Amino acid sequence: MWRRSRLARWGVALLSAWTLLLSCAALWAEAPEPLPRAEIEARIMPPYALGDLAGGDLGTKGVYLLLNSGGAEIGYVFETGPLAPLPGFSGAPIDMLVMMDKAGLILDLQLLSQREPVFVSGLGEAPFREFLTQYPGLSITQSLVIGVPYGAGGAGSDLTYLDGVTKATASVRIAHESILAAALAVARDKMKGMKTQAPARPDPEIREELSWPDLVAQGIARSLVVSNAELDTAFAGTIWAEDDPEAKSDPEGAYLDLWLVDVGPPSVARATLSEETREELEHFLEVTPEAEPFLVMDAGRHGLVSADFVRNTAPDRLSAEQGGLPMGLRDADIWVELAEGPPETETAMILWADRRQGFDPLTEWTLKLQAVRRHGMFQPQIGDRHFTLDYVAPERFFIVPQGHKPLPAWAEAMHNRKPDLIVLAVGLVALLVLLGPLMNRFAAQRYFTRYRLVILALVVTFVGWWGQGQLSIVTVLAVLRALSGDGSLSVLLYDPFSLLIWAVAILGFFLWGRGLFCGWLCPFGAMQELMHHLGRGLRLPQIMPNARWDHRLKKLKYLMLAGLVFVAFAAPDYAEKAAEVEPFKTAVTVYFQRSWPYIAYAAGLLLLSMVLFKGFCRYLCPLGAVMAIGGLLRGRDWIKRREACGSPCQLCRVKCAYGAIRKTGEIQYDECFQCLDCVTIHDDPGQCVPLILAAKRGARNRQEEAA
User: Fold this and answer.
1) Are 259 and 328 in contact (CB under 8 A)?
2) Cis peptide before 47, with omega less than 30 degrees from 0?
3) In 3D, which of 63, 120, 121 has the Cα closest to residue 94?
4) Which has the closest alpha carbon to 521: 657, 624, 446?
């Protein structure tokens, strides 16, 4: 029977402490501390100077006054990290220094620190710094959007488009949201006097029978009508005055015949939308609970958006502001069918604003509609005019929070990834059921291998590439350093997707050992196994080290782990570079978008796996060594064995591609990847030699009895 060695006892103690600390990590989940004043002051170049800390709560978060050369207060200086600690892919916030004047104009923007894997050693920081150079000169009163306009739709639009970074969409969006969230927090507190309490939200318990005339009479449905003649008047005296023949030919016709209704309250939605559209809206609000939806209808020529508009994006001819600051609008991508009562219109859309960005439906806001004209055939000059409609929702349909405390960054991270976490949780529960109570039935399926390959393909695509849930030795090193007092465990909670996988992997230690993660949940391990099956399909010769060399090579991963732990404490600046022994960042995190040595290393390991079954996992993976130590927590021998296993039967040992079965037939659980091949053999009367021999003996006995 298996006995715990001294190493095993230390491993159990380490992993137990790690599990406890993971569960308690929320206690350390706080925003990063502001930099010392001297470091901030060194970055402020003349003619500007750093003033005193701003008063109030923001002063405690490192917000300073910005002075001009004469010593007058002209704006504010602040970091995005303490004000808006939105977690990036690395789990840590992207920290930037912003200089902003009192009108909301960004004067300067500097990158202070970031640990996004794609910019650390993938693409490098240069593209990220180049991206940030687009912000100086822009104002937070503009509608800033990451991306490019579709077709000609961006011409003359109120939206200001910022070029992103290819293969780093998520990281630049996180940086963009951090900049806006921090800047708006300063603007609301110091510049506009805007209230900072949580916005109101519709009360689902209020049910009131309303009709369309009721909505109009009570100001819940508001309209704006602009005739062609009024449009011509707006452009009168400009070079665009004669550029709309249709307006000239029908001056009394409607250029804009618009209705605006906040359909967040269920009573209002029932009075305006069909049952099918309401159901679709309710589903949308379940997925996006912080959205405040608006029904916008137009029976005129304006049409709400340009011909090049793409659904589920920001409308290019509509914008909004509240309290002097821009309010992001986005299409909900819902096909609108009206209830009986509202007027017939040419265009109807459901747009939404995000309450998390400070929008309050009970505070008056303004919808701005842009009218665009073009003068000239080639490279036309574009001119625009705006028509506005003020709106405020009725208070009786809403719940007004009192003194709501903002969510901490880790809770916000969980909220932002709610759909992914739900899908992952369902998948993990299903996998635990398949490998637990249904294990023997699952392994006995005729097409078991095909099912396993499908699951591994989903792990690569959803867990790895989409969810960025590839666990890494970097996390283990961060935990060890945090335990020594050098670092914080809060970073773990900034990536709830990976943390959920860690939790299930640790649970797997107690049930099966290392096999749950290494055999079923590791994206790079899944890639290797898929490549192995491709190699087998191509009939490539297979490398199979003998038992002695297999045993020796398996010790290498423990040496790798020991070396990385040593570097993490002795030379921490080189720890991340040393962790590149894992090809996970290249193959999973940045989708092979790196310099050629990294790509060659990762691709070489995958190609090697076509002829040497999961060679990296078995021999080199330091994370696999951690998982093997964690597997010592296993409390049972879950793979059934018979007395004949090992002597005389050696079938399972010969078939085990991992070399995890000893000659005695005993399972070596620290090397078992839970592929279930031996379970399939053990339960199959057509493969298991002891079962075959027993069946033959039974047949002979029956024949003798019959004789």
Assistant:
1) no
2) yes
3) 120
4) 624
Angle at which helices 523-537 and 596-608 cross, to 10°: 60
Contacts of 206-214 with C-beta under 8 Å, sequence gap 24+, read 206/265, 206/266, 206/267, 206/396, 206/397, 207/266, 207/267, 208/267, 208/397, 209/267, 210/267, 210/268, 210/270, 210/271, 211/271, 211/341, 212/271, 212/272, 212/341, 212/342, 213/341, 214/271
CA distances (Å), 606 to each of 377, 451, 461, 536, in order?
A: 56, 21, 16, 14
Paired tokens of 576:
């991340």
- Choose among 362, 359, 368: nearest CA to 389: 368
Question: Shortest CA distance to 476 belongs to which of 493, 492, 454?
Answer: 492
- The whole model's pTM is what? 0.53
Helix (H) or strand (E) holding 160: strand 159-162
Which of these, 326, 338, 395, 415, lies nearest to 367 by C-alpha position?
326
Closest CA to 408 of 78, 28, 62: 28
635: its two tokens: 């409390």
Task: Identify which of 181, 87, 31, 30 has the alpha carbon closest to the alpha carbon of residue 416.
Answer: 87
What secondary structure letter does DSSP report for 663? T
pLDDT of residue 486: 59
Angle at 228 between CA 249 and CA 343, to 5 degrees: 115
Q: How far apart, in whole angstroms, are the C-alpha atoms of residue 495 and residue 116?
A: 12
* Structural contact between residues 168 and 125, judged by C-beta atoms closer than 8 angstroms: no
- Retrieve residue 655's tokens: 């078939």
Quick count: other Cβ atoms within 10 Å of Cβ 527? 25
Mean pLDDT, residues 473-482 taken together: 81
Half-sphere exposure of 548 (CA within 13 A, CB side): 0
Higher pLDDT, 425 or 576: 425
Dihedrals phi, psi of 75, to nearest 5 degrees: 175, -150
| Alpha-carbon Rg for the chain in angstroms | 32
- At 375-434, the pLDDT tens digits run 888 888 888 999 999 999 999 999 887 644 445 556 656 776 788 899 999 999 999 999
Peptide bond into 408 cis (omega under 30): no
